[in-house]
Write a structure and sequence with these properties.
The chain is an alpha/beta fold. Helices cover about 25% and strands about 25% of the residues. It is built from seven helices and 13 strands. The longest helix is centred in the first third of the chain and has 18 residues. It starts with 5 loop residues before the first strand and ends in a 10-residue tail after the last strand. Bound molecules: S-adenosylmethionine (SAM). S-adenosylmethionine binds next to strand 12.
């Protein structure tokens, strides 16, 4: 297997100046989820808990994704919906539908998405977490959010390849994998959040999610981008599958966690610091 270039930029993906236009084949990422309380701090600069502004923050990165993807390149976005009670009124924030609208506005083609079902044992009662002693009495319980979405978008028409392209053929998946991966509901347990402190809030996805997506939507030697890298799960999967990689992570302290996550293969990864002036986003 070849070892294509892998780099991680410690910096802000709203300006990916280190990545040239039309140089990325696949994006696999999980952004901070608007209106999910663990991420509120991250959105502070756009005014605490304003749903529209949080999506406008993400849109700046999505516009960069549109610039760096090749024609026919694919973006897979893992996101969950959120619920919150404000001034005593319950609200559902359907992040997945907002992201679809925003990608459509940028001209992407929306493909059928994946529903990632995470096994859970915690149904909810009147917005108060577990049912507790309320038992089995209708009608005030609501359905537990135990699904996340993997939204799939394509930039323009599908990629074309020469007949019998050797890299494409070497990247083939099995019938069993095809039958499982290309069905709409994936039941995959969430990642065990083993890291403590600030990093515990990273909410990493399990290795299986990026591994499947990279195998489904890219070929050997392609370049995969994760603009919200967190602990480095997508990087680890990309290296394991012989893909090139570029990742962005804003929190400097994640660098050691990424190294630890990737293990011995991290010696192949170049870590770059983004130039400070780039961090100032001009609206
Ligand atoms: C949901 S986590 C990603 C988790 C990741 N999939 C994993 O498995 O560890 C989102 C990450 O995006 C980072 N982030 C948020 N805004 C960013 C930005 N503008 N540029 C780069 N990274 C950003 C956060 O610091 C956080 O680590």
């Amino acid at each position: 297997m070849t070892h294509p270039d892998c780099k991680v930029v410690i910096g802000d993906s709203r300006r990916m100046t280190e990545v040239t236009g039309e140089s990325v084949h696949l994006v696999v990422t999980s952004p901070p989820y608007p209106m999910v309380s663990i991420w509120d701090g991250l959105f502070d600069e756009v005014s605490a808990t304003t749903y529209d502004l949080m999506h406008e923050y993400l849109n700046q990165t999505w516009r960069e994704v549109a610039r760096v993807l090749i024609q026919g390149g694919i973006a897979c976005i893992n996101i969950g919906d959120a619920t919150r009670t404000r001034d005593g009124v319950f609200h559902l924030y359907p992040n997945h539908s907002r992201v679809i609208e925003n990608f459509e506005t940028m001209g992407f083609i929306t493909l059928p998405y994946i529903l990632w079902k995470k096994p859970t044992t915690k149904p909810h009662y009147k917005g108060k977490g577990a049912f507790l002693g309320s038992g089995f009495l209708p009608p005030n319980a609501y359905v537990t959010i135990d699904m996340e979405y993997v939204l799939i978008f394509r930039k323009g028409s599908p990629r074309t390849f020469p007949a019998k392209d050797p890299m494409r053929y070497k990247s083939r998946f099995s019938k069993k994998q095809r039958d499982e991966w290309f069905s709409q509901v994936w039941t995959v347990p969430g990642a065990r959040q083993s890291i403590t402190g600030v990093e515990r809030r990273i909410a990493s996805f399990p290795d299986e999610i990026p591994r499947r997506l990279i195998s489904m939507f890219s070929i050997l030697d392609d370049v995969v981008l994760d603009p919200f890298l967190g602990s480095g799960t997508t990087l680890k999967a990309a290296i394991g599958l012989g893909r090139g990689f570029v990742g962005y992570e804003k929190q400097t302290q994640m660098k050691d966690i990424i190294r630890e996550r990737v293990g011995p293969q991290s010696r192949r990864v170049r870590f770059l610091e983004q130039a400070k002036e780039i961090l100032t986003v001009v609206e």
